[in-house]
Amino acid sequence: MGAGLFLVVFGALLTFAVKDEMPNVNLAVAGLILMVAGAAVIAHARATAAKERVVTTREESGDPAVPTHVVEEIVRERRRD
User: Fold this and answer.
1) Mean pLDDT of successive 10-residue segments in the chain (81 residues)?
2) Do the Cβ atoms of 31 and 14 come closer than 8 Å?
3) Are 37 and 14 contacting, i.e. CB atoms less than 8 angstroms apart?
4) What residue stretches are annotated with the DUF6458 domain (predicted)?
């Protein structure tokens, strides 16, 4: 996701902050293209990121001499669309 943020920031700088004239190069359009590419990279990273959830199971008994049994399981899910 870091590369996507870099592209968005660099594209915004080219579009809004640079006022230089280069022959045959429109810096505003190049900046917009970089911002769209950065947004696409961020969207792809978020869509394919692994998600974690913790499942906790408790088994308690009425007898105070028997300890409580706790099981924690980490489940990693990967979205595949």
Assistant:
1) 93 92 90 97 86 72 70 69 52
2) yes
3) no
4) 2-58
Which helix (H) or strand (E) covers residue 27, if one does? helix 27-48
Q: How many residues does the chain have?
A: 81
State the pLDDT at residue 81.
Answer: 52
Tell me the whole-structure pTM to 2 decimals: 0.63
Task: Give the pLDDT score at 80.
Answer: 58
Q: How far apart are CA 81 and CA 59, in angstroms?
A: 37
* Identity at 61, one-letter amino acid code: S
DSSP class of residue 62?
A: S
Nearest to 78 by CA among 51, 43, 46, 41: 51
The Cα 60–Cα 70 span in angstroms is: 9
